[in-house]
Amino acid sequence: MFQGQFDLETATPVETAIPDLLFERGLYWASGRSGVVNLVAAHKWFNLAALKGRADAISMRREVAEMMSDVEIATAQREARAWMTSH
Predict the structure, then answer these.
(1) Which residues contact 86 (CB under 8 A, 6 or more apart)?
(2) Residue 46 and which of 4, 11, 54, 85 are 20 to 30 A apart at CA?
(3) pTM surpassing 0.85?
(4) Is the CB of residue 49 less than 8 Å from the CB of residue 23?
């Protein structure tokens, strides 16, 4: 059970945290933090972050897309649409 205190003055609202979390997932896959670079997953998460209002995700998505084939981009876009419909 939580027994601390919340600092409501510095707390981040959930609505603004979601684009940051999506962007972080994009960075995770683009950078290979897992040990594997997955450009399809990175594009997907940057795309979602951009859709949720994270402006810098647009340039990251574009940078990742430059290293991908058309088929990979289409796959990432399909995965992003699927995520949006299930969340």
Answers:
(1) none
(2) 11
(3) no
(4) yes
